[in-house]
Specification:
Elements (H helix, E strand, L loop, with lengths): L2 E8 L2 E8 L4 H8 L18 E4 L2 E4 L12 E3 L12 H9 L8 H14 L5 H7 L10 H13 L2
Parallel strand pairs: 1-5
Antiparallel strand pairs: 1-2, 3-4, 3-5
Helix pairs in contact: 2-5
The chain binds FE2/S2 (inorganic) cluster (FES) (2 copies).
Length: about 160
């Protein structure tokens, strides 16, 4: 399998990574860069557990090849906080009890963060629409939506 050298910005830092042609962005993040906050739920673009930002837009990292992201700007859940200072949506989810097993949480946080970046004051329908691609197997949607509303009130 051909190896490719690619360059990306990941959580604000420049990375040079060697990947195979068929390496997904998800696998590169978890296995090469050890950013295991991004989860692998289905490997099929269905669950949203692997959501990261690519050039500011939420994407399913299991459905992208790493080589397609050469030159891109990636933000994972590890990049939402500023040192020990959590992002508002992270704090809000903790405060409302919007985390059960936590497997969906990184992807939910990325999708919610992207929503709040483009629309600081979303209504409930807009929040649910933004999270439609993120499945929570613990079915804790009510509190997750409540957490995003709480974060929006701080904007
Ligand atoms: S792991 Fe990518 S959408 Fe489920
Ligand atoms: S908190 Fe368990 S899958 Fe969402």
């Amino acid at each position: 399998m051909t190896q490719h050298k690619i360059h990306l910005t990941v959580n604000g830092g420049l990375e040079e990574v060697s990947v195979q042609s068929n390496t997904t962005l998800l696998r590169m993040l978890r296995e090469t860069l050890s950013l295991t906050g991004t989860k692998n739920g289905c490997s099929a673009g269905e669950c949203g557990a692997c959501t990261v930002l690519l050039n500011g837009e939420p994407v399913n990292s299991c459905m992208l090849l790493a080589v397609e992201c050469d030159g891109g700007d990636i933000v994972t859940v590890e990049g939402l906080s500023n040192g020990k200072q959590l992002a508002p949506v992270q704090e809000a989810l903790i405060q409302v009890g919007g985390v059960q097993c936590g497997f969906c949480t990184p992807g939910m946080l990325i999708s919610a963060h992207a929503l709040l970046q483009r629309n600081p004051h979303p209504d409930e329908a807009e929040i649910r629409e933004a999270l439609v691609g993120n499945l929570c197997r613990c079915t804790g949607y009510g509190r997750i939506v409540e957490g995003v509303k709480k974060a929006a009130k701080r904007n």
